[in-house]
Amino acid sequence: KKASIGVTGLAVMGRNLARNLARHGHTVALHNRSEQRTKELVEQFGDEGDFIPAYSAQAFVDALERPRQVVIMVKAGAPTDAVIDEFVPLLEKGDVIVDAGNAHFADTRRREAALREKGIHFVGTGVSGGEEGALHGPSIMPGGSKESYQSLGPLFEDISAKVDGEPCCTHVGADGAGHFVKMVHNGIEYADMQLIAESFDLLRGAGGYSPAEIAQVFQTWNSGRLDSYLIEITSQVLAHTDAASGKPFVDVVADQAEQKGTGRWTVQIGLDLGVPISGIAEAVFARSLSGSSNLREASRGLGGPSRAPLTGSALHTFADDVEQALYASKVVAYAQGFNQIQAGGAEYGWDIDLGKVASIWRGGCIIRAKFLNDITAAYADEPALPTLLTSGGFRKAVEDAQDSWRSVISTAVRLGIPTPGFSTALAYYDGLRAERLPAALVQGQRDYFGAHTYRRVDREGSFHTAWAADGRPESSA
Ligand code: NDP
């Protein structure tokens, strides 16, 4: 018997993906650079389904039904290229290579183009949900050709998470679209985590709540519109007491957030595409700031306001106000992320269904949330929606939240509690709805020092004012 699919790269992600496939009744060929991982998988989990272990690339390829479907789950970057180079000579036209690692979408586009020349389908696929997701049902975001999805789709849909009976897997778009969407998913994840962290900081610093009390607040929020995996785990992290010290766990963890790079990529590409994804950018910068030990050490004594926590009615409504601020800021972060996907789609010629993307993020992945049902519905109502902020439900919710949102940010500013995520989200909202922006003045400055010209509100064409040395216009053209 041959295998319908093979997995090469059997570290935690590959192993769990292979087990997930086998548990769903698919025969899975197994391969790893070092034999040990393959042996271990078969020894420990061999009874979960049909596995065909292979100890050479040739044996692995020979174990596969045609057209062959090879899933690569190795370290992103050079290792992925090394594995592709190893397998390509052994494959034939029509075979499919899936890269399920966290590749940069530009690498995926390059690899896809090179393999297309050889008649091999290369399917860069985003997989989210960590090791648990890989085993029990991840959110899967395949790119590549439509043709490859005909054979791969049913397998991937089978092992993906399900929400309301629908698989959290769809063909996202051609070549690098899947990895692009996974990248933005991670960027949104950074923003979401930052906003939740700011909520915690405010509840503690301005509201005077203890971590255990904040865990309770988050738990309450988790039964409302903020119902999500990230809120749920935050509540659990905050409720946790460190056994060694007896202190709240959150107080014994070094306050320097690390990053593996997908958030940074999202921001870099956001800049390239000219999409204002300020919420994601601030979240990445907040992690960088937290990790800037020398800078923080040197700056610790800088003056700030006294931090007298809130009292009276302001305290009474504070948790609810923070919930509103979190919700509104979150809508902004997602709106920005979806706009980035839209812009990426336009730039690279992908026909991405944004509502479908929202729907496959409802389960399996780190940003899974009830909220994504509303995004799915918003794009179903209006596929060409310019921004989520103008869709009926979100518009009303954010308008209703804005008084609290503004009040929470003023409290933060007054007490000197940094809220880059909340603040940039509100600035974006106010920027978008502004009748006039001071960009007009920036254009004037540009014209003054660089003769960069400007357009006028009342006439067509491009204009330059000949600014004299004393700043008075000499003449206008
Ligand atoms: P790692 O990223 O730690 O990669 C280890 C695997 O890569 C091993 O199988 C290793 O083989 C193989 N490998 C490394 N270099 C080479 C090489 N030059 N040639 C052949 N094989 C090589 O494993 P993970 O399971 O954590 O992640 C796999 C992929 O999935 C990565 O791209 C990761 O970014 C992505 N991912 C990870 C998630 C997570 O939560 N961990 C979530 C979503 C995606 P050997 O055993 O011989 O060393």
Automatic annotation (TrEMBL):
PANTHER family to which the protein is assigned, alphabetical: 6-PHOSPHOGLUCONATE DEHYDROGENASE
InterPro entries, per the entry: 6-PGluconate_DH-like_C_sf (IPR008927), 6PGD_dom2 (IPR013328), 6PGDH_C (IPR006114), 6PGDH_Gnd/GntZ (IPR006113), 6PGDH_NADP-bd (IPR006115), 6PGdom_BS (IPR006184), NAD(P)-bd_dom_sf (IPR036291), Pgluconate_DH (IPR006183)
Keywords, ordered alphabetically: Gluconate utilization, NADP, Oxidoreductase, Pentose shunt
Enzyme Commission number: 1.1.1.44
Enzyme class per UniProt: oxidoreductase
Protein name in UniProt: 6-phosphogluconate dehydrogenase, decarboxylating
Span of domain 6-phosphogluconate dehydrogenase C-terminal: 178-468
Binding locations of NADP(+): 9-14, 32-34, 74-76, 102
